[in-house]
Amino acid sequence: MLLWFSAVKNNFDLMEEELIKLEGVTKEYPQGEIIIQALRGVDLTIKKGEFVAVMGPSGCGKSTLMHILGFLARPTAGRYIFAGRDSTTYSDDELAVVRNSQIGFIFQAFNLLPRTSVLDNVILPTNYTPGANYEEVRVRALQLLETVNLTHRLNNYPNQLSGGEQQRVAVARALINSPSLILADEPTGNLDSKATEEIMDILTALQRQGNTLLMVTHEKYLSNYTDRVIQMQDGQVVSS
Questions:
Q1: Most buried among 32, 117, 156, 170, using CB within 10 Å?
Q2: pLDDT (tens digit, 9 = 90+) per residue, 84-102?
Q3: Which of helix, strand or coil describes residue 22?
């Protein structure tokens, strides 16, 4: 398992400029005798290092698209090519490794463990990383918390932090495994304007460092921070 994991990491280090390519991706959910089509033949390309916003009305397929890009769901039809490999060729075990090692998730609700310190919340994803060295991981976590200006909060618990601070912890956690893709689902939805600006400044700084980011948002002005907007409606990409 460890040798396979190392090979996967090496492959991603050599990834081409095109990080994501969707070809005719459809996602259907059965609901009794009815089939709900959440995505309808989506074609999409995202290059390495891009910062992309996904926008559209509620129910248009934004969350389903993010779930597929984050390997939380498989397409019903079509192809999702990630870093040059068709994701339909991955086994469930391979998908779990890629999801943990190559995807960083940032959620609107923060999703921090309430009885776990800030430092341990950031370290948490590495518990599922084969061969992770705790001391090396701890050093990286401290570096990331310094990046988001939270070194003074290492031993605090989430309920002792402001919303903006909790989201900064979530950003550090998303980066702990050095992912190829950062997926942010309404990352400023629970924040005031000052905290929103802080989070967006952090995200744009991450892009300048070479990270690829995709952000789902309802806030049109946040698209000013991104390279382009993918507009969705009725399960389809209507502009990109």
A1: 170
A2: 999 988 999 999 889 988 9
A3: strand
